[in-house]
Amino acid sequence: MKILYHFFILFICIQSSSFAQNYQQQLNTIDIQHYKLAIAVSDTTNSIDATMSIKLKFNKTVNEFQLDLFKKDSVSGLGMVVDSIYQNNVKVEFSHTTDKINIQTKHTFPGIEYTYTVKYHGIPKDGLIISKNLHGDRTFFGDNWPNRAHHWFPCVDHPSDKATIEYLIEAPNHYQTIANGFQFEETNLTNTTKLYHWKTTVPLPTKVMVVGIAKFAVQNIGETHNIPVSTWVYPETKEKGFFDFSTAKNILDFFIEHIGEYPYQKLANVQSKTRFGGMENAGNIFYFEKSVSGKLEHEDLIAHEIAHQWFGNSASEIDWPHLWLSEGFATYLTDLYILESKGNDAFLERIKQERQTVVNFYKKSKTPVIDTKTTNYMHLLNANSYQKGAWVLHMLRKKIGDGLFWSGLRTYYETYKFSNASTNDFKQVMAKISGENLDTFFTQWLQKVGHPIIKSSWIYHDKKARIIIEQTQETVFQFPLDLEFIYKNGTSEIKTIQINDKSAPFVVNVSGEVTAINFDPNAWLLFEQID
Ligand SMILES: [Zn+2]
Fold first, then answer.
1. How many A from CA of 304 to the centre of ligand 1?
2. What is the average pLDDT score of the chain?
3. For 404-410, what is the mean pLDDT?
């Protein structure tokens, strides 16, 4: 996703919904295959009535297992109340603590599929946002990242337990619905209600499972590579919205051609109530309400969210500390889309801006990209995951070359699509494709804190430039550094030196009298230069 500029204010009010929970026990115990969520919403109450049928397999023999579901809090009155749970057709005992339902099993065996049906109701505290949009119309929008799905349906709310999902939505018939997958059915139930049935054929992580229920204006803008692309915006400003999202087809084309087959059945771009700037929900991306302006202001945001369909949604990080595999990829792939669509100057402007963002962030937060200590996942939506992650890919592209970089990305995607990967998995793919040992590269840029902060001095004498480079930061990095020598006769020349030590002298043969040296003239290195 992409965060809004006023995001830091939001930290204050959303902390409780995104703290680390212990998922390891659940991941070791069960493997969810399929979710079938029957959910009824209405205009007279914010309370939902729902029945979730979960097909799952046990990884081992257990008497009890856990699903995530936020329990009704007696003070606020928000949260879910479980009415009953059945294992296949047999009622089972359960208890419900703050975030977990503990379910007693009856004679289950590992490897066999069971269906657990949870009947429940309540007002979602989070996850399904029931409110009014900017035109005052009532709307319902799922907004699950990172683990807020369990505020409106029982699940294993972790990106590494993927499953297919279907939604049977009962809603007043003046709404339209959008959800993951394809629409299977739309039936009039009564004079005032309809049933909408949506279904996915490929497994998704819970973070991108959503429904949207609202009054929409919908435009089908055509197909590309057999994928239908549509725009769903509030009817009041439909012309502006249709125009703003009209670029989606070209962006989709670019990524299909560069990365591989699009993972889902459709691409819908949806104006919504997401708290994020954009939220990459699988096959139906939700954008913030004011993304619609009629001025094509958010092409890069659209590109970012579309890139996530491959990286983050389909090939997903194995756990939240590896978030850069999602956000760094979406950020850099947007840069590469801009390189193709707007040229090198526009690309360089972005990449330099991203470098500055990393430098600024480092001044206030000394954390590595792979951050296993931060327990509030919302805090991982930072410059390390986005801009530094993008810069790691940028430097990797320089290190192994454009052709191998793209072919490595394609292989990584093909290997981990509909599945999960760690940073090490990605490293191994890229190392194999390039034939290079990438251990130092990945360790220093992703597991260590910071980046090179260089102090230098130089003199010129007799066709030689003598340069002393000192790394002033704590961790010593190894990297190639491009130096552009500016000569007295007005010409220039770029030479590359390899930096391995904290401080070292270099003697570079040059072809004229040096009047200045530009460090990293083409923006290939994440570094700072100080006096
Ligand atoms: Zn993103």
1. 6
2. 96
3. 98
Q: Is the pLDDT of residue 8 over 50?
A: no
Q: Which two tokens stand for residue 363?
A: 């001044």
CB–CB of 221/248 below 8 Å? Answer: yes
Q: Which secondary structure element, helix H or strand E, spans residue 30, and what is its range?
A: strand 30-40
> How far from chain centre, in Å, is Cα 489?
50
Cα–Cα distance, 436 to 362 (Å, whole number): 29
Separation CA 24–CA 16 (nearest Å): 20
**The two structure tokens encoding residue 9:** 């204010």
Q: Which residues pair with 119 in a beta bridge?
A: 51, 84
Structure tokens at 6: 């006023």
Rounded to whole angstroms, what are the CA distances from 233 to 175, 176, 290?
13, 11, 11
Tokens of 189: 């139930």
* 470 Cα to the center of ligand 1, angstroms: 35
State in Å: Cα 311 to ligand 1 middle. Answer: 9
Interior/surface letters 74-89, b for 16+ CB within 10 angstroms, e for the rest: eeeebbbebeebebee
> Which amino acid is residue 60, in one-letter code?
K
- Name which of 167, 131, 175, 136 is nearest 149 in CA terms: 167
Calculate how far, in angstroms, residue 266's C-alpha sits from the geometric centre of ligand 1. Answer: 19
- 314 alpha carbon – ligand 1 mean position (Å): 13
Distance between CA atoms of residues 263 and 283, nearest Å: 8
HEC string for 462-474: CCEEEEEEEECCC
Q: How far is the CA of 471 from the centre of ligand 1 (A)?
A: 32
Distance 348 CA to ligand 1 centre (A): 20
Residue listed under structure tokens 């197909």: 223
- Tell me: pLDDT of 341 over 80: yes
pLDDT at 476 (0 to 100) = 98
Residue 289 DSSP symbol: G
Residue 264 CA to ligand 1 center (angstroms) comes to: 18
pLDDT of residue 15: 44
